[in-house]
Design brief:
CATH topology of the largest domain: Histidine-containing Protein, Chain: A
Helix content: 40-55%
Order of helices and strands: HHHHEEHEHEEHE
Number of domains: 2
Structural class: alpha/beta
Strand order of the largest sheet: 1-2-3
Strand content: 15-25%
Distance between the termini: 27 Å
Length: about 200
């Protein structure tokens, strides 16, 4: 499992600021064995990790507990929900200034606390569960190198698939497995196909 004990301690000491970082730690840097299977260079992985650390620092500074990042080949995917417009604007402004990001997929939403649309949204725990289940489905899929894919979700029931498929067939298999889950309303596909 992808996990950092440092982040776990941070969650116990400061649960509000560290919750988003915990999610990233659970999904982000993987073991050396998993990385060996990944079809990328060590320097490419290091660049991704540098970017995520910078974005996590922004989240901690703003004390956001409802934003999540995924990254692959410096293509950064950010999802989340803010109820404070100033925090949303600050977060977006700072994330857009992070150096090294080749492409930013911005799926962060501002929605006021009293907006009636909030009644139909998934809770953050439900989003984490939906995302975890989608990642688990990828792991057991024959012909899919799950370490080359990243999945995250949002409170609207959408899942986002990011990564690289070695063939169109692999990309379609991964997409189908992510779609095949309870509560998944749509899947946004950011997979690039390259051998």
């Amino acid at each position: 499992m992808r996990f950092s004990w440092v982040i776990a301690v941070a969650v116990l000491l400061s649960p509000q600021a560290a919750r988003a970082q915990l999610l990233d730690a659970l999904k982000a840097p993987v073991t050396l064995i998993e990385r060996a299977v990944e079809a990328r260079s060590t320097s490419d992985i290091a660049k991704d990790n540098e970017i995520v650390v910078k974005v996590n620092a922004i989240m901690a500074k703003i004390a956001s507990v409802k934003a999540s990042t995924e990254i692959y080949e410096q293509r950064l995917l950010v999802t989340g929900l803010f109820d404070n417009k100033a925090d949303y604007d600050s977060f977006e402004s700072q994330v857009r200034k992070v150096e090294g990001v080749k492409r930013l997929y911005w799926h962060v939403t501002y929605l006021a606390k009293d907006d009636p649309k909030r009644k139909s949204l998934l809770g953050w725990d439900d989003v984490l569960e939906m995302t975890t289940k989608a990642n688990t489905r990828l792991v057991g899929t024959k012909g899919v190198a799950d370490v080359n894919f990243r999945v995250t979700g949002d409170s609207f029931g959408a899942l986002y698939l990011l990564g690289r498929a070695r063939s169109g067939e692999e990309g379609q298999k991964a997409l189908a497995r992510v779609k095949d889950g309870d509560g998944v309303k749509k899947v946004v596909n950011y997979v690039e196909v390259r051998p």
